[in-house]
Amino acid sequence: FRSLSAETPLILNGDTVDPGDWKHLSAGDRALVDRIRDESLRRSVIWITGNHDPKPQFENSGRIQFMSQFRVEKRLLVLHGHGFPGDWSFFRSLIRFLRILHRFYIGLGAQPLHPARYAKKWPIIYRYLTASVMVHALELARKEGFPAVVCGHTHGHADVTVDGIRYLNPGAWTETPVYCLFLTPHDIVLEKVEDVL
Q: Residues near 51 by Cβ (< 8 Å), separated by ≥ 6?
């Protein structure tokens, strides 16, 4: 945040803090939320709610604007990407099974992993979920007349153009390499950064 001018808006594309509720955030997540709240007193902060974010209710939220989607003029559609329709029943059951397996391994002494990192250990499932989010995002962007769309959700960076519509994903700020999306007056740039805070 430090390198951004005060006029530059900040958009957080979901899964910003770990699951839970605002009253029981970890010390690290609480410090991050406080920092984001402080930034909202200096600049416009848009927090797109993701599937891992707790419900956006906490004391003294500053001027953070919580949204499910955000549109940057007619240039870029911003959404997290977890709410697309589809027949996920098989994959939900599979993901539940993998979560049980993950907890079992942790019980045996394995190092805990973030759910997204654990999902990446199952590449066929991860690739399918990633492709599904991209296809739905591109379809929505085309329907709404946007030349570009950015999602989060899959925690893997991407920058592809399909039939003239650009799909971007900066990945996760908790995994390296870290990418940020910058909008200039004439371009949209997915850039690797050293430090997001």
A: 14, 15, 80, 82, 153
Q: What is the DSSP string of 11-28?
A: EEES--S-SS-GGG--HH
CB 49 within 8 A of CB 67: yes
Structure tokens at 197: 């805070």
Instruction: Give pTM, 2 decimals.
Output: 0.82
- CB count within 10 Å of CB 137 equals 23
Structure tokens at 173: 């700020």
pLDDT tens for residues 38-89?
999 989 999 998 877 766 666 677 889 999 999 999 999 999 998 887 655 5
Helices 89-107 + 123-144 axis angle, to 10: 140
pLDDT band at 125 (very low <50, low <70, confident <90, very high): confident
135 sits in which H/E element = helix 123-144
Instruction: Show the tokens assigned to 114.
Output: 């973030």
Q: Give the sheet arrangement for strand 65-67, strand by strand.
A: 10-13, 45-48, 65-67
Q: Is residue 171's pLDDT more than 80?
A: yes
